[in-house]
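Can anyone check this?
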Amino acid sequence: NFISSASNTQSVRTVFSDRSSALTMPTDIISDAIRKRTSFSTISVREYYQTLGDNPSCLEGAPVSLDWTYKYEKSVSLDEYENSRQQRRRRSELILGADERRKLLIGNGLPIMEVIRAEKLVALKNRSSSCSGGSQCGKI
């Protein structure tokens, strides 16, 4: 919510910058700028499905991405969310290994052949990008 001044009379305030030059502005503009605030009382939390991804930095196994559809959405007060959320995880705890990603994708209903195909594409991409010449590289 923004609070604005209802006064019709305009007074003027002089504001000095670091260069000692004066800038004259109506006081209602200054006081409006000081009083503008944003606050949140309720937030919406969504849990998204995970699906086969296309992350080019994936070095091994099938990449995982968030799906466009979500499992559920719930609204909670900001205070309730902050009090019940878990501690932030370390970066190393956010990384899933190739086996974990395979289990996750198959557990989410993706056909195993589709997951294997994605794993082979990643292996092929990484193998071809690490080769210096076409004749030195073997086939998968």
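Reply from J.R.: I decoded it. The beta strands are 12-16, 22-26, 42-52, 64-77.
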